[in-house]
Amino acid sequence: MSIIEPIKPVKKARIGLYSVGLKAYWNQFEGLKERLILYGKFIESKLAEFGEVSNFGLVDDEVSARTAGEWMNARNVDIIFCHSATYVTSACVLPVHQICKAPVVILNLQPTPQMNYLKTTTGEWLAHCGACPVPEYTNAFNRAGIKYRIVNGLLGLDKTPVISVTEENTAERKEAIRAWKEIGEWARAATVKRTLQHSRFGFLGNNYSGMLDMYSDFTMAQAQMGIHVELLEMCDLDRSLKSVTPNEIKVKRELVMEFFEISGDSPSDRIAKKPTEEQMVWACKIAAAQEKMVKEYDLDALSYYYHGSMDNDYERIQSGFIVGHSLLTAAGIPCAGEGDLKTALAMKICDILGTGGSFSEIVAVDYDRETIILGHDGPFHISISNGKPILRGMGVYHGKRGSGVSVEANVVSGPVTTLGVSQTGDGKMKMIISEAEAIKAQILMIGNTQTHIRFNGSPDEYMDRWFMEAPTHHCSMSVGHNASLFSKTADLLGINKVIV
Question: Is residue 113 located within the same domain as residue 28?
């Protein structure tokens, strides 16, 4: 299935990098300085996959450390990688991070699996002793109140420098692969932080009345996640709706036909039928209006819900929400129903990281398969669908007023991770993370998204653990096992997290 073009690109992280070495070494050991700079350039080239890299080069005394800190501040970096290239005193490292407060990750990446013990000189050894000063850095950081993270492993060069007396082609070594997976996750997590700090979340309408876990403090969301919350009214969408042209409806209809399968009548549920022509046209018109509103307000995500009086025009508008919000979600503008701003955040985090992010809650437990069925009545992230999602015409939405077109789909089979964002009693946000497997199995034919998910342990054991974390009852479904990635994201955001 082709992918819908993102409406707004992700803001890549601004990545700071520097390597360390002791100035006293340069005149003593010919070629060592140039060799370490070469290693730093290699790291720079690898990091460039994840963001905009600013490589200061070598820090080799406390003066250059202060200069590096100011240099990083001037570039407004989101994260700094300190490459421990050889021994250096901690006095040459600490000032960088006292001046620039961006999160720091120490890279202890040895160039070779083992030294050539018969040929290694002191200068050669110094190119391999990056681990030696790391305890010195961490002790100084700890006493200075600076949080640090560490990645240990092999550098991962794909060819050996001429100066080396040891094989340094370690690109395929597990220690290099693991280290670069960790480094990549830190850089991607920094991309989440940067993107959220520049994001505008729309809040359209209100929360579903009585869902106390949905209610959240907009100032809290901005203070802890960096997002701006734009409060929207249904009349804002109605204004966009009035400007939709027949050609815009036609374009949306073509997009819907490309990405969805149109159902017949459900064999099991009398309120789930083949969408009528009127329902399809209305859903496509609403979808065009939704995109117009998103672009007018420069939104990066949306949470929404509207509850009006019977036969209210706005009530009819909200009945057409699900198709358009599924299209927006696939285009990088995650949409969360029932006014769930926190799950919109979870979905946005998943989307920034390229792992999907579909709106979900517990549907039921299948004790025979030992699965928990997760899903909702929409919206759905098309890019992680197991085949084309199905559109069904709904005579009535369960628990809500109105009727319209709904999405029936399940997530592609394989590893998945659920991400919930909740709010605790002390007003702090918390990320709740669970790795699992999506299982291909029969789902209900009632116009809802549903996927059988097998968590670690029995369904009851998992629910015991999850419920005790006081989650928001919705969560975001992502593809892949992403606990490590989500944990790093929580770390950089300064958000509490738990892996269930």
Answer: yes
CA dihedral sign, ordered 455, 459, 465, 466 = positive
Mark whether 209 and 181 lie in a shared domain: no
Residues 360 and 254 in one domain: yes
Structure token digits, residue 255? 């997009």
As a whole number of angstroms, the distance between CA 103 and CA 383 comes to 32
Residue 490, in any domain of the structure = yes
**Helix pair 277-296, 246-259: axis angle to 10 deg:** 100
Q: Is the pTM of this model over 0.90?
A: yes
Residue 180 sits in a domain whose CATH number is 3.40.50.10940
Q: Average of pLDDT values for 182-208? A: 96
Name the amino acid, one letter, at 92.
C
Residue 84, pLDDT > 60, answer yes
Residue 5 counted as domain residue: no
CATH of the domain at 386: 3.20.14
DSSP states of 288-304? HHHHHHHHHTT-SEEEE
Residue 468 burial (CB count, 10 A): 10
- Rounded CA-CA distance 15/17 in Å is 7
